[in-house]
Write a structure and sequence with these properties.
The structure holds two protein chains of two kinds. By secondary structure, chain A is of the alpha+beta class. Chain A folds into two domains: 230 residues, Rossmann fold (3-Layer(aba) Sandwich); 85 residues, OB fold (Dihydrolipoamide Acetyltransferase, E2P) (Beta Barrel), CATH 2.40.50.140. Chain A contains eight helices and 18 strands. In chain A, the strands form four sheets. Chain A has a six-stranded mixed beta sheet, with helices on both faces. Chain A has a five-stranded antiparallel beta sheet with strand order 13-17-14-15-16, with no helix packed on it. In chain A, strands 2-1-4-5 form a four-stranded antiparallel beta sheet, with helices on one face. Chain A is globular. The chains are: A alpha+beta, B mainly alpha.
Chain lengths: 336, 284
């Protein structure tokens, strides 16, 4: 079992004055066997970070330590990592079996050993009957499995996933998410998973790293991240629809920002007056989009509840124990 | 996109196409007809338009290349062999050199890469015909006249093929190179295990084009080959037509011409399968 340790990682693109600071002092310790998801908007440096672990991107400063080895200057193939790429990166001219065996062949393993490992991995992923096919004869989901198989056969100490689900359709994505979870439980390998999808982050991770502009905004369990966002950014990024943020609502003093999740409102006879702009039905629930003074507000209600009419003014009260306070200057959470 | 069915449009289109085919094919047909008659029949008016009965004799005469066979002592066997070796060397040489240079240009960062690229680009403006005198001087000084090296080396460097492969390599997703890196494949391993198999279709296409290019070389071999045993067939045919009053043995010359046409035609026919395969099985 292997830990993954980031020590003050910096990444610059370009040189001197015009250089771009892509990752700014990234510090994190990932426990052995832990499943950590890095989530953030595009361009936040999350893929760069993953590629630095893989050895596909140079580390400008700091150290990445896998187990007890500093891997900064170690060749990608000797880092004991395996990576699943966004577009799977299967070799188009090789069969599934050859794709999975390629790394082992280069590593100089005996052919019986390669055969057993490939068979095992194929069995785990349920792709045994696809081994003789070429990637172009596979569906997106099958290719995804092969890409995972190629990672598994190497029996790496760390798995790296670079947005592996983004090319799948919605239904398959949910299914594959579960598969990845099961696979991780079965293999127990330390895993770093990069995504821009907060649902993937929340469902898969033991702990989530929320990144923004090359820095860690918060590194915690999904529950903590959802219930105690450390900053305005995390509050707005995690949760769909995102948390409402008010500067001017009643009861909010200047210098503070109040955050309330859409589901944490009660419609009452008195309270904050909200003018209803639109109502969306999502099936089990309804989203009411409205305005509270000059600020917009989203309220989530059960679809069985009475539907307010558009243009009508309703009154809502936030749940008192579900308020999030942030400092308007630092945009950080004010502990409550 | 639908086109209305109008019979007379079809008729005009087909007539045009048939006339086009006839314009192209008729000289070849005439060459074949000429290669099946005696020299006397070809020297009289009107020349025959239907095949005669001398086909085997004429082709045997052309291939044997004896003094009185009409080829003026030149062996068509020998000329075909020279052509084949040169064309193959040129085609493979071009492909190998272009693959390697395109690989370097796309996958490696080295000083003056841009300059190297532009140098290759500029050679597009300098085909053999333009630099033929200095090139001849160099080859002659190197003692490469009347050798396969002299026939092929100056023609091997190819900017066009380098560009073709460069464009192809650029279209190969970068993730493949990265996956290979993570899998532990070094640059050359990546080149041989992944890039070359992926380029198979491009290589086949280029082979056809370059083989025909090499086979059809006329001007350069005309300068560089001064001995009859190093004439490629395209040059050889011209040499078969006597300059003076001697009778031109059109039947044997045409038989040689038909023989000279055969190999490129074969290459096209055989490789066409590859083209189609490559087109159907588009790799992602």
């Amino acid at each position: 079992m292997t830990t993954l340790h980031f020590k003050n990682i910096q990444k610059y693109y370009g040189r001197d004055a015009s250089r771009y600071h892509a990752v700014r002092g990234f510090d994190a310790e990932i426990a052995s066997g832990e499943f950590v998801v890095i989530v953030g908007p595009s361009g936040c440096g999350k893929s760069t970070l993953l590629r630095m672990v893989a050895g596909l991107e140079e580390i400008s400063d700091g150290q990445i330590i896998i187990g007890d080895k500093v891997v900064n200057d170690i060749d990608p193939s000797r880092r004991d990592i395996a990576m699943v790429f966004q577009n799977y990166a299967l070799y188009p001219h090789m069969t599934v079996k050859a794709n999975m065996a390629y790394a082992l062949k280069i590593a100089g393993l005996k052919s019986e050993e390669i055969h057993t490992r490939v068979e095992n991995a194929a069995h785990i992923l349920g792709i045994t009957e696809l081994l003789a096919r070429k990637p172009r004869e596979l569906s997106g989901g099958q290719r995804q499995r092969v890409a995972m198989g190629r990672a598994i056969v190497r029996q790496p100490k760390v798995f790296l996933f670079d947005e592996p689900l983004s090319n799948l359709d919605a239904k398959l994505r949910v299914h594959t998410r579960l598969e990845i979870q099961k696979l991780h439980r079965r293999l127990g390998v330390t895993t770093l998973f990069v995504t821009h999808d907060q649902v993937e982050a929340m469902t898969l991770a033991h702990r989530v790293i929320v990144m923004n502009a090359g820095e860690i905004e918060q590194f915690d369990t999904p529950e903590e991240i959802y219930n105690k966002p450390a900053s305005i950014f995390v509050a707005g990024f995690i949760g769909s629809p995102p948390m409402n943020l008010f500067k001017f609502a009643p009861e909010v003093s200047t210098g503070k920002i109040l955050g309330v999740r859409p589901e944490h409102f009660n419609i009452t006879s008195e309270g904050w007056p909200v003018c209803v702009d639109t109502v969306e039905l999502l099936g089990a629930e309804r989203l009411i989009h409205g305005s509270l003074g000059q600020e917009s507000i989203v309220i989530r209600i059960d679809s069985q509840e009475a539907v307010p009419e558009i243009g009508q003014t309703i009154h809502v009260k936030p749940l008192a124990n579900r308020l999030h306070w942030f400092d308007a200057q630092s945009l950080k959470r004010l502990e409550s | 996109m639908s086109i209305e069915k109008r019979p007379w449009v079809d008729a005009i289109a087909h007539t045009t196409l048939i006339i086009g085919v006839m314009v192209i094919a008729f000289p070849i047909y005439m060459a074949w007809v000429a290669s099946t008659h005696t020299a006397q029949a070809m020297a009289q008016w009107p020349i025959p338009l239907l095949p005669g009965d001398q086909m085997f004799e004429n082709y045997a005469a052309a291939l044997s290349g004896s003094e009185n066979s009409g080829t003026r002592g030149m062996s068509v066997y020998r000329m075909l062999l020279v052509s084949l070796i040169s064309a193959l060397t040129i085609a493979f040489g071009k492909i190998i050199i272009s693959l390697i240079s395109a690989f370097a240009l796309v996958y490696f960062r080295f000083p003056f890469r841009g300059l190297v690229f532009w140098c290759i680009f500029i050679t597009l403006m300098l085909p053999v015909e333009v630099r033929i005198v200095p090139t001849f001087k160099v080859i002659a000084d190197l003692g490469m006249l009347n050798s396969y090296a002299g026939l092929t080396v100056p023609l091997i460097a190819s900017a066009t093929a380098t560009f073709l492969f460069r464009q192809f390599f650029k279209s190969v997703p970068n993730e493949l190179a990265e996956a290979a890196k993570v899998d532990g494949a070094g640059p050359m391993r990546f080149f041989f295990d992944i890039l070359i198999p992926l380029s198979a279709t491009s290589i086949a296409a280029l082979f056809v084009i370059q083989f025909i290019y090499g086979w059809n070389q006329y001007l350069w071999p005309l300068l560089i080959s001064t001995k009859e045993d190093m004439y490629p067939i395209v040059v050889g045919i011209r040499r078969m037509i006597p300059a003076g009053d001697a009778q031109t043995e059109w039947n044997v010359i045409m038989a040689t011409a038909i023989l000279a046409m055969a190999p490129p035609l074969m290459v096209v026919l055989l490789m066409q399968k590859w083209f189609v395969k490559g087109l159907v099985e588009t790799e992602k």
